[in-house]
DNA sequence: TTTTGAGTTGTTCGA
DNA sequence: GTCGAACAACTCAAA
């Protein structure tokens, strides 16, 4: 008798607990992926993620074929699809790996309850988090709202994690249920400017994820602390989209990184490795927050921010989205996002701060844009991080912390290599002016062959003015809260 | 229960 | 040019 293996955000064969458990039963396995437009919730998959998902599913399908089985694609309401699959195959078991987003978790619970009534064995596993969100709590049993104690608590729970290898064979059922053609889903949106270029930057799938992890572990992780902040240098892991789709799991990353650190110089853990692991735990922290505060994507964690008077500024928003704000580091970031579906983390903070504090546009507007354009768009990370920058989230930035785009640019892109790559029209400006063309003298601009307002926009807002305006408005919010 | 110490990523100003 | 203080309390987590 076959076991249904329901793939979700776990598009890999290694360290996939549901798969391992299903194979261990010694019976055939029927792997299925369901595209559910009915129960997608309000955060249905964004455009860039659609492209990735297509690649990831097609990689998974061939990996499964290589192990003697076939991935079945189904469309429809998850309840109906699963019901039909069970009756079609006669299966009495269905296994899957849990998701933790509010709407997905709700779906899980309903499905388990419904199937139990019918005498079906429905089991779910954790393959996407180091710890269950309910496993980590303060001494009072409350969810953590501050990162550092969360990080300490998680570390105290253990140094390493058990991982499972991919099964060599996945026993196939005698008869496969009918399957859609993946192509027919039309996941990569035609006409979207991304689709043509995303493949220049990325290869979805478990094999590519493993390769990236290996590359990162063998070299880059040891310089991570210094290089992670330099967007012109390839110093980050770039694992985020792979991790989001579950092509690699956090336990595998954790173990790999720790093992290579030990092999290299024993204890104590190098600071760079420590720093990278803490980023993995930031992801964990975001999931923890989303699980305990399910409104995180739409409601400010600090309630007084519900009253914040955000600006309605379609012109500013469009300039931000298109990368034509007149602030080079901001424009470079937004263009990198558009061209590659990804943006360097340091620059994410800069552009987010610009949207929120310089333009005073609601953080949720930025959250929506990132959701649609990032290949690593992740509900937990995205909402927790936007709230963090806006100052309304957990452990958030103090209100007076306003990034100065020119200063950030000089600090983290001192040679201007990042800006020159993405904003080539100002590439000929000397290093001292590349982050602030507005400060250039006419002779400098002439030398570089630029006319501001023609070849490159004038700043859409004066940062010094904008900073004061933001500080005033944030201060007023506090006054309102006090009075 | 109360107290204590601490909290991802910054900027500006003035000495 | 460098350095420390101010920006502002407030909430969290643990002792």
Task: Quickly count the helices.
Answer: 21
Can you count the beta strands?
5
Q: Tell me the distance between the termini.
A: 67 Å
CATH class of the largest domain: Mainly Alpha
Return Rg in Å. Answer: 24 Å
Domain count, please report it.
Answer: 3
Name the CATH superfamily assignment of the largest domain.
DNA Cyclobutane Dipyrimidine Photolyase, subunit A, domain 3
State the shape: globular
Order of helices and strands: EHEHEHEHEHHHHHHHHHHHHHHHHH
What does this structure look like?
The termini are far apart. This protein folds into 3 domains: 125 residues, Rossmann fold (3-Layer(aba) Sandwich), CATH 3.40.50; 121 residues, Serine Threonine Protein Phosphatase 5, Tetratricopeptide repeat (Alpha Horseshoe); 180 residues, DNA Cyclobutane Dipyrimidine Photolyase, subunit A, domain 3, CATH 1.10.579.10. Helices cover 49% and strands 5% of the residues. With 483 residues, it is mostly helical. The chain binds a DNA duplex (15 and 15 nucleotides) through α5, α14 and α21.
Write the layout of secondary structure elements.
Layout: E1 3-7, H1 17-24, E2 29-35, H2 47-66, E3 72-75, H3 78-89, E4 93-97, H4 102-117, E5 121-125, H5 147-156, H6 193-201, H7 206-218, H8 224-227, H9 240-244, H10 250-265, H11 271-292, H12 314-322, H13 328-340, H14 345-358, H15 363-373, H16 379-390, H17 405-412, H18 417-422, H19 431-434, H20 442-448, H21 463-482
Parallel strand pairs: 1-2, 1-4, 2-3, 4-5
The chain binds a DNA duplex (15 and 15 nucleotides) through residues 138-140, 142, 144-149, 229, 278, 282, 345-346, 349, 353, 388, 395, 397-404, 407-408, 467, 471, 475, 478.
